[in-house]
From TrEMBL:
Record protein name field: Endonuclease/exonuclease/phosphatase domain-containing protein
Swiss-Prot/TrEMBL GO biological process terms: GPI anchor biosynthetic process
Domain PGAP2IP C-terminal nuclease-like: 53-212
GO cellular component labels: membrane
Organism: Paenibacillus solanacearum
The organism's taxonomic lineage, starting at the top: Bacteria, Bacillati, Bacillota, Bacilli, Bacillales
Amino acid sequence: MEGKRLIQFRSLWFIAMVVLLATTPVYRAFASPDSGLAGDGKGTVQPALKLKAMSYQINSGKGTDNVVDLDRIADVIRASGADVIGLQAVDKHYSSRSSYEDQAKRIADALGMHYAYGPTVDLAPEQGKTERRQFGTAILSKYPIESAVLHPLSNSGTEKRALFEARIDVNGTAVRFYTTHMDTSAAVRVKQADEILSILGGQTGPKIAAVYANALDTSAEVKRLLTSLSDAFFDQTGVYTNPAYLPAKRISYIMPSYDWELGEARAIPSLASIHLPIVSELTLNPDAHANPSLKALAFTDKAISEMVGNEMNVKLNAYYTNGTVKEVTSSASYASRQPEVADMPSPGLVRAQAAGKTEITATYGQLTAELPVAVYMTRNAELASLQIDGEPLASFAPDRLFYRTIVPREAKQVPVVTAQPADPNASVEVLAPSSLPGIAYVVVTADDGKTTAEYRVQFTAGRTELDVPVRIMSFNIHHGADSGDTYDLEKTADAIRQSGAEVIGLQEVDRYYSTRSNLEDTVARLADMLGMHYAYGPNLDRAPQQPGLPNSQYGTAVLSKYPIVEQRNYALTSYGQEQRGLLETRIDMDGVPVYFYSTHLGLDAVQQQTQTDEILAIAGEKDGPVIIVGDFNARPYSPDMRRIAAAYQEPFVSKPDAYTIASNRPYAKIDYIWANDKLLLGDAERAEVVQTEVSDHFPIVSDLYVKRELNDLLLGAGE
């Protein structure tokens, strides 16, 4: 049965498929690719034709709230006024995740549009179902779709990819409209770009491609596509499509052929998908490439800042309606609003003369562009001195940014931190902790307003012989695979054993997940090799990989030398494809109950903010010692790590180079150990990043001390 399914699947892929097409609401067959339409060498192109094109990755209809709602998708398209739309990530009877709906038909019906569907994944029906399970791309159109064909593209093996083409009759003019969802591998995308250009190069007439490229416009694959096509957003910067809840990059494109004049293009704010749709207004003009008109004028720098006495070269670009860009620095005229601050003695040369701000205006043709200029005296952001409660910090040095100060364990009042900058024109801001223990941040901003330095003073309490020492580790084990992606759980166990860690929080832990980890219960095996107790928190829980095996799971875990008394796994708010969680354990450390958490946060700032709120709320309810470890996917200076640092101690605060990823080329710290005020930090030199490539992350390990007072022992003895 499986063999037959594979043959059927391949037969679809090694033929350039002519795809069943529908006009809303009735399905019908369509003309062959050779049928003659105007603009295809068999008619007359109408130069006044205008179209609004859209590209939209709909994520199977699922929005940022994890709810599938095709009405929201249709509403976004309707409000945009788009005439032709390329959709990516579209289900057709695929699974329960989209209620087995034919999504393209449903959206087309809601909009009263023609549509065509191009499946890139084609699977046998589920048990009890009759429709094949499909996933792919779709094209919607206000105008009749005369034919459609699916062109297979190279792929990385995880998912089939294709270029889906529709020939649309727009008032007698044949327009070829394409959509594609490119691979996740950069090397494969370069091949796909060449294949797409080869397909388009063999066709005549006006063309528009809606491309979900999975790549930035600086990538080789996108640059290659733009050797033969225009970018509708060529004259814009700061237009982002991903993720929808906090757009930070553009990986979606509308690419028309050169016979289209480019009009307004924009991304549409919407949370109906985790990706933003983009639209562009296009006007068909056979002379567009030969005789373009000026569309926009802009400096290549949005703004500049420079020190008094320095000079800086800038460039001015003119953008034309055919998508071409021309540098016109030497051809424009310039004027400074305040030439005494900065002027332009020759085209493109900005001269900084006095501290202050001004704007330089460029004029070219009928258009103008402005360049904000800030001029400053120095960029010195060092401190000259630092005091604690009025007393100079004995160990202070201007180039040392991190300090640890011991305060009496009974102290309640936060010491007052004051500081003076080396440059009197610089500013100083002191952010004091709300309680002890805590960190005071001293932020120095230089006169240029951009150069900054951050000094940190960590206040921690002294230890006594009654306190309970424990060595803590956080380790993203990359499902037991090393930096070369070779699975070797013995090496993972050796790294933990050699560190001396007694309680360990693990992330990316497989449990019968797949063959990548030999379908093992990796946490049980690690615990057995180390002679430890363990707890597991699955964040992904799927059907078994093989008959007779438990569910396929992936998540976080805790290993402990001490007994684990209780455990609970919390699902954190998550967007996109991977559920995130917080594993809570209560551990008996020599009679002291300690709450120990292991977590792995999402990849984007919006998820991290929500998930951090949830973690702080859950852990904040506990009265006793609390330790939180994990892969937070955020750097120490991020707002969320700052919020955690306001309530918890971090052993590595004095070690700015404690990078944890990637183990074969470390560049960032994203793994942490946090402890509340019921614990004390160990010696700074005992906080270590373990240099090993048994994972793609370095594990981190540190000593903590569970506070214990004499009264606590006496009370315990009395009980």
